[in-house]
Design goal:
This protein is of the alpha/beta class. It has a single domain, classed as Rossmann fold (3-Layer(aba) Sandwich). The protein contains six helices and 15 strands. The strands form four sheets. Strands 1, 4, 5, 6, 7, 8, 10 and 12 form an eight-stranded mixed beta sheet that branches. A three-stranded parallel beta sheet has the order 9-11-13. A two-stranded antiparallel sheet has the order 2-3. Strand 6 and strand 7 form a beta hairpin. The protein is globular. The protein starts with a strand and ends with a helix. Bound molecules: 1-O-pyrophosphono-5-O-phosphono-alpha-D-ribofuranose and uracil.
Length: 207
């Protein structure tokens, strides 16, 4: 699993336990999903290139830095919206593409119901964000869609991943690093991540 980075931070362990707890209510779930998303998105953006920027502080001229790389973020609807909200604090003007995928409950195969992805240049950094990487089918389809639009520099970001999903995804996209907060034990017979946290979208959106 050489292209996978598990982000380690005490605040992630703390918040992830709250997300995993079946008794956690929507309000707390949202709050801690936001904390974890921010921490892993910091990691996912740590290779962004900077350029010099001349400014004046109240006391003196200063050569600081500003971001040089242009970022496009693609949240996988619906659950990926949770991570988009977190990213907005860091990159308020980020371009956003959308893909709507829903797993068939029987086959666990994702069906696309919406797609609107902006033009992508090879220089863009594309962050594909989806809290759950289970079979890896949704992340696989989304990365294939952004590659079809021209993306060359892609990072896949999830909160909880299953080994089966990582294997499937990495086989199809060995060029795309995965940043995640946890690699869990396995999938169950309904392709849910175990121990996991249940259905992220339902718990986050209170449905
Ligand atoms: C969930 C989750 C991922 C996907 C992961 O979405 O948010 O998008 O499953 O599973 P996979 O790796 O096996 O493809 P779901 O289909 O439940 O839709 P939702 O986000 O609208 O709840
Ligand atoms: N989607 C989820 O929300 N949870 C899982 O465990 C698997 C897919």
């Amino acid at each position: 699993m050489k292209n996978v980075s598990v982000v380690s931070h005490p605040l992630i362990d703390h918040s992830l336990t709250i997300l995993r707890d079946r008794d956690t209510k929507t309000e707390e779930f949202r709050r801690h999903a936001d904390v974890i998303s921010k921490l892993i998105l910091i990691e996912a953006t740590k290779h962004l290139k900077l350029m010099d920027k001349k400014i004046e502080t109240p006391l003196a001229p200063f050569v600081g830095k500003e971001l040089q790389d242009d970022v496009i973020v693609v949240p996988v609807l619906r659950a990926g919206l949770a991570m988009l909200i977190a990213l907005r604090d860091f990159l308020p003007a980020v371009s956003v593409g959308f893909i709507g995928l829903e797993r068939d409950e029987k086959t666990a195969i994702a069906r696309e119901y919406y797609k609107k992805i902006p033009q992508i240049f090879t220089t863009h950094i594309v962050l594909v964000i989806d809290p759950m990487l289970a079979t890896g089918g949704s992340m696989d389809d989304t990365v294939a869609a952004v590659k079809a639009k021209g993306a060359k520099r892609i990072v896949a970001v999830s909160i909880v991943s299953a080994p089966e999903g990582i294997k499937h995804f990495s086989k199809n996209h060995p060029d795309v690093p995965i940043i995640t907060a946890a690699i869990d034990k396995q999938l169950n017979d309904k392709a849910y991540i175990v121990p996991g946290l249940g259905d992220f979208g339902d718990r986050y959106f209170g449905t």
